[in-house]
Amino acid sequence: MLKDLRLPTARRCFMELHEKGLDLGWSPMKWFSAVLELEVIERSDRRMESRRDESGLPLGKTIETFDFNAIQGVRLEQIESFAQGGSWISDARNLLLFGPSGSGKTHLSAAIGHGLIDHGFRVYYSQTSMILQRMEQARRDARLPEWFRKMERYDVIILDDIGYADKTKVDTGLLFELIADRYESRSLIVASNKPFSLWDDVFPDNARCIAAIDRLVHHGSILELQGESYRRRTAAGSKTNPKLNKKKPTAPSIPQTT
Ligand code: ADP
Ligand code: MG
User: Fold this and answer.
1) What is the mean pLDDT of the segment spanning 96-121?
2) Cβ of 109 below 6 Å from ligand 1
3) In angstroms, what is the span from residue 231 Cα to ligand 1's centroid?
């Protein structure tokens, strides 16, 4: 019956807990509660794990692994507050992260994403050019409306590296449609190393560029990260500082892209 009811944890544990209860003199009520409690806890863990899988978030890029002393323009409390969810999600507000390559935009947006999943939200992370390719494919398959409906389930979509979306390679009109679709209904996190003044290179025309920026900033917070590339710094440090070298053995050279 527990199998029919799809209660796998209860099915696995009810006998063991029954025996434990006999030893400890539990009442039937106590035993029943213990079985259900375990099912609820494990179900929540399973849901969180599957949400982390579907999110596409880079693993390990969390608040705990981010060094807030290494960068200016953002404080731990700000990121913690975004990571908890709350009104910015229910009010469908946005977060825009600007900063040079290597300043931590991907890490911080992923850290917020992981935190939101821990708090029970659904998050979808993608490089902007990648999500555009998926949209393009959905349109080719005449599935674009379904795709939009599916994406509405996500409390937050993280569009990383919006500045690298190339209007000569993908139809960035779709990017405008996505931003317009989520305006005042669902949150976006957008990361960019290009200031707004260069977004003309992203959107197909000036009108849609202005309209997209307008929608993003209307209910949006902006964080501007300042400081030298963390990658460059750790790469430089690893050459001269053997201690650092030990800690960061994977920083071999200065990557040219984000
Ligand atoms: P961006 O997206 O701005 O180009 P990333 O977030 O990809 O930069 O950061 C580059 C690398 O440096 C990543 O491996 C990231 O985890 C790491 N990194 C950047 N800033 C920090 C920081 N303040 N503390 C710890 N790691 C950082
Ligand atoms: Mg990045």
Assistant:
1) 96
2) no
3) 7
